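## tool: complex_structure
## caller: assistant
## args:
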Amino acid sequence: MSDLKPVTPLGGETARVDTIGGLTILENPDWALASLSARQDHDAEAAESAKDFLGFDLPEVGAMAVGDVFSAFWIGPRSWMVAASHDDHELLVAEMKIALKCAASVVEQTDGWCRFDVAGAAAFDLIERSCAASVRAMLAGQVVHTTIHHTGCFLIRDDGGWSVLGPRSSAGSLHHALVTAAHSVA
Amino acid sequence: MIINHPILGPRDAQEFTYLGDANLIDRPDWRAENAIKAFHDYLHLRDNPAGEHRELWFHEQGDRSWLVVTRDTLTHEITSVELARDVARERGRGK
Amino acid sequence: MTQVNRLQGGLISRDRTLNFTFDGRNYQGHPGDTLASALLANGVRLMGRSFKYHRPRGPLTAGSEEPNALVHLRSGARQEPNTRATVTELYDGLEARSQNAWPSLKFDALAVNDCLSNFLTAGFYYKTFMWPAIFWEKIYEPVIRRAAGLGEISFEDDPDVYDKGFLHCDLLIIGAGPAGLSAALTAGRAGARVILAEEDLRPGGRLLAETSPLSDQSGATWAERVRGELVAAGNVRFMPRTTVIGAFDHGIYGAVERVSDHLPQPEAGKPRQVLWRIYSKRAILAAGATERPIAFANNDRPGVMLAGAMRAYVNRWAATPAQDVALFTNNDDGHRTARDLIAKGVNLAAVVDVRPNAPKVDGAALFAGAEVIDSSGRLGLKSIRIRLRNGETRDISCGALAVSGGWNPNVHLTCHQRGRPAWDAGIAAFVPGDALPTGMAVAGAAKGDLSTAGALSGGAGAAVQALRTLGITAKPPDLPEAEDMAVSLKPFWHAKGTKRAWLDQQNDVTVKDVKLAHQENFISVEHLKRYTTLGMAIDQGKTSNVGALSVMAELTGKSIPETGTTIFRPPYTPVAMGTFAGRSVGKEFRPTRLTPSHKWAEERGAVFVEAGDWLRAQWFPKPGETHWRQSVDREVLATRGSVGICDVTTLGKIDVQGADAAEFLNKIYANGFVKLPVGKVRYGLMLREDGVAYDDGTAARLAEDHFVVTTTTVNAVLVYRNMEFARQCLWPDLDVQLASITEAWAQYAVAGPNSRKLLQKIVDPAFDISNDAFPFMACGEITVCDGLRARLFRISFSGELAYEIAVPTRYGDALMRRMAEVGAEFDVIPYGTEALGVMRIEKGHPAGNELNGTTTALNLGMGRMVSKKKDCIGNTLSEREGLNTEDALRLVGLRPVDPTNPVVAGSHLMAEGGPVDAAHDQGYITSAAYSPVLGHSIGLGFLKRGGARKGEILRAVNPLEGVEVAVEVVSAHFVDPEGEKLRV
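## result:
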């Protein structure tokens, strides 16, 4: 593989971790991402091929499904985001294109996003200060697209806390917003 | 305002971008004899009712669906929200 | 100074003493005090000077409706003007100063205004300062601003941070008095998600100020117990120090939480205040009621206050404004103040009740059927004059007077969606009307239920009903026994007389002013407000609107509801500007987007420019370069001479896939794409439906069913939105899927005669990028630097042999460093947006200045690109006659006749020797730059019949900058007009 050295969305060689009170905000660049959109009149075929590839059914509206290798969440009508370990599946798009053939359009999204994982007792308070999503009603495995510091983000609730996926070029601003909100509530 | 998205449920209107009259779906036929006149009217002549209005909203900070929202411009009461794609097909739009 | 007017009891913690200063003097108070209660306890009644007449003033109220006791709180950068002493929680070290008084509060030089009151009546500004106009800005306004006014801002940056947040609930309860608490108890026990917002620091509302028990406990104790249960339940969020400031559409409320205002300064990292946006399914307004005064001559002296407020000071804060007190009332509730004062050992000099059949008061002289008609005492009340039922007058000495004219329900939030309150003759007050904001119900005193028992049962009932509509079953809790006194009141608004009687103390509006407004026919309530300034500023007329309305009603001979109602708008109480800004201040006002090479550019000292939210390198100064032109000229010459690299990641990138992808592009671009072969790129022009060009870019065909479209940096969002509109609303059956991938790829322009040689050093050998294998406008998916996936496009904005190369963003920084390294042998340089702009002007490529929202493809010289054989957005209306006239504007190049002259963008083109006016305008210059290649300024512009006028000399006139230059019309392609460099 190439000898070009990647940097994280925040520009570091390694992922940044911030600990504020009992809160941790972890920059997480270890995911390969690809979006999958069913072609016109190929919904069933796309769903079937995706299931064969992922090992689970494509999730319902607002949900994320997690398997051994892949996870996927709903991003819009007939569209999903698929995630896998970057180390093992950097060429996720190529894998998916083979699996889905002409049933779906597959687009590399890996570096379109930065991802911050937020955990700790005050994580609910932090998210509540950051976006309009009804965070206290969200269960593990639910995903919502919302706005954090004027940028469109996916907000994922999982067992351990929250993940925020935001546009990579705004990583610095988004990180600043999360860190200052953490100071507010920690 | 809250827009009750047909797929996602109630969402803050701040997530949406407003366009205007839903009649923008009814784009005229470019081959018609009076096409210039038809396009002119389509583009520039719109109702601006004080009351019920069907209008286009784009869920830009959400799932990127275009919606047709029926809203009372006096009270902001929203009585119906549909996917614009479904409305377009109902009105005979295709390829 | 001791706390001479401190009484026994109260909800203050005497085990701690807090030191504070007011106008530089030291005082003591206790936790639980407000600034006003502590000052009263210290025997201080005088707290401010009035707005217009500089009259001495003390607190009228004990709450957020306060018109008088406004102070500067804190000092230095944290100085806050117009802070109501009545709601300022006391903390150790608190520092407050009076405002609108000079040299001191006790001796205010501008109190002379009070003697000029005959001139300073309503409408004074409008009548006096009319002429000459120039005097207004230079003389009148500065003088008025100094004389009339409230507090002063610090003129320093606010050092505090403010936060925003979002909350969701089934039921929002506004106010934690008896009605709100019983509603919260009901909803909390039913398991609903409840938010209970209270502007005070603790729950209870009026219960904290009253002595009548709830069953066997005090109101305050009951309120504390309920709070305990609610907080323990987990589904109720009790938010003290939180004011709901506005009711917005569809159950959305704004609330301000004062997180740190009760502290000397916020803890590190903590916000001073939080602005909450609350999404509620249902809401109960339990905001209570506000007492109103009765106007009489000189009723504004320090010591005259509302009866309920005095009761609150005495009961809750154990502070009396004076040792000898009188009461003036028109209703039974006022008598409670009399009873509580006597119980606390305060001497009650007289009870003056306008009702001839007023109930007796044990321990005080009752004057039934009498009125207070005047008062005396320069800096504080010394005595009142009353007119007895038989017409005789009598003076009674007292240091404070409690006044009760009845209670007005706090209907404010019911009006925020244009609801109009209705008149309830039973309590002589406005109550909420029928048209309430969506999902709102009203309970307790806010609804006009003025007894404690009514509030308790009303709150519970409202909660049961609200939850029922949400499908949640709730039942009212067992409520304590409470007073259930009916309202007994004789409407009485002002004692008649010739002296000034204040209606609105904050704005110095008197009964006389309302009479004057009536006399001059400003009768409508809205006119009355604007003519007299009644109801404006900090308190928004909470204690004065109804009184003024009643006077106007008397004058017009109409009833109060016939005279009109005033409605209220947000915010309920004043909000600091910083709270609305939240964290979006300074550099963080909006997000900043950084390019993949940002860090690398920063290391090289690049100067950055904002492009939308992006920061882009504008130029890269080298040591010794002192002017930006030196850097830019060098970057242009180096690129054209060898090779330069520019980060173009900011251009919008949209992935378009599907069986109908080409057909879709045919519809959104003016030119055709169906026949574009795989592996090729084409320039595309996008029109608005009215035929005006709005964006341009390229579309690269990576596969039969796969394109990558680029947009200009600033239009990326708009183009994507329009493409989704076309896809979903216009041609919903096309098989096409879109994804924005702007951020996913780091993209660099590599331009100049040595660009291929540079790229050949990083493109893996398996990919032939020679001119034959990869000609002009080729594109393809390749690998670089030993196997990294990349996309290569042979396109040129500069006019040179050029490429754009894209890799996944995480490798963008490394690729830039690698290219700089391998390009060293070609003296590769980075260039910024300025050099980019110079080169595109030299090449004659239109950009944002030319696609300016008024120009068509024809104007841009691309008329033939607009296909007439297919349907696309904008093609039909671009054929309109008016857009296709003989003398339509055409893009041309312009060069100064004298090469030492500049070409100035924005200049208009005029004929030589002709007049310079709009009627003779021939066109205008859109872009201009110094061309280091040509050695003189050049410009692009639009000129009538421009295509046929090459060689003509025109005047480029810029009256704004006082520049006029003779220019020659030339081809827009200053450099390599045949495009030979592109194809080598």
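## assistant note: Residues 596 and 810 of chain C are 8 Å apart (CA to CA). Residues 593-650+744-839 of chain C form a domain with the Gyrase A; domain 2 fold (CATH 3.30.1360.120). Handing back to user.
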